[in-house]
Amino acid sequence: MGELPEHVAVNRAYWDAMAHEWVEGGARAWTQAEPTWGVWGVPEGELHLLPGDMTGMRAIELGCGTGYVSGWMARRGASVTGIDNSAEQLRTARRLSEQHGVALELIHGNAEAVPCADNSFDFAISEYGAAIWADPYEWIPEAHRLLRPGGILVFLGNHALVSVCSPLDGSYPIARRLERPYFGSHRLDWRDAVDDPGGIEFTLTFSEWIKLFRATGFEILDLTEIQAPADAVGSRSGISADWARDFPSEHVWTLRRRDRSSPG
Fold first, then answer.
1. CDD domains attached here (predicted)?
2. Taking the alpha carbons of 148, 120, 75, 38 in that order, is the dihedral positive or negative?
3. Distance between CA atoms of 50 and 62, rounded to whole angstroms?
4. What DSSP line would sit under the chain, residue for residue?
């Protein structure tokens, strides 16, 4: 195995070091009968990110963390593979999957280079995970490779407004004004952030996302900009519930891999 790209190595060390902070939340999510999504816990009944019946489907979670999304899919009948960059996160995922009697294939690796064959999966999903921690110019084509023609990719991550409203020094809270350029915000290095220093994240402008999807071979089925629920309180990573009711802090893209015979 060659040397890891800088962001992959940085994010691996970051998540291995902080994995213990996500054990309790992961364990709680594993007990949920119905999925909830993102930092504001929006119900599956509102977002519809998963097929209701996944019997016979092969699914992959790109950046599975503690594995609860993989568990939700397995309980809907799917055969599920989860890949994550953090060995410590996977340690929790394995323990919880065994505790709940849910069979998962779990891989320690990078969602930009997944050790699975072409056309292996019917459905791919990332809730944060690869959606923000992997380079989209690498992981989106990789997801396309992994999916069969007609396969679905769903991913949830930070909205572009979060990056442009984040102070340059990485301090909290997120502002109600533009703090950094919208253009050229592809790579966000938070290692020296004033508050909650972290790893290296990625984002794109909306036009860049759309051009990447088309160039890769995906068609866009849906885009949802998530609004914090009316009863949400507190803040998440410097984003207050009031901010997230006025501006979207998260987005969800739903894509379908075009059949090779389909027009571009």
1. AdoMet_MTases (cd02440)
2. negative
3. 15
4. --PPPHHHHHHHHHHHHHGGGGHHHHHHHHT-SS-EETTTTEEHHHH--S-S--TT-EEEEES-TTSHHHHHHHHTT-EEEEEES-HHHHHHHHHHHHHTT---EEEES-TTS-SS-TT-EEEEEEESTHHHHS-HHHHHHHHHHHEEEEEEEEEEEE-HHHHHTS-TT--SSPPSS--S-STT-SEEE-TT-SSS---EEE---HHHHHHHHHHHTEEEEEEEEE---TT--SEETTEEHHHHHHS-SEEEEEEEEPPTTS--
d(CA 161, CA 248): 7
Q: Over the chain (264 residues), what is each successive 10-residue block's mean pLDDT?
A: 89 98 98 96 97 98 98 98 98 98 98 98 98 98 98 98 97 97 95 97 98 98 98 96 98 91 50
CA distance 93 to 27: 9
Domains of the chain: residue spans and CATH: 6-41+50-257 (3.40.50.150)
Tokens of 201: 């994240």
Put simply, whether the predicted model's pTM sits higher than 0.70 gets the answer yes
Residue type, 233: V
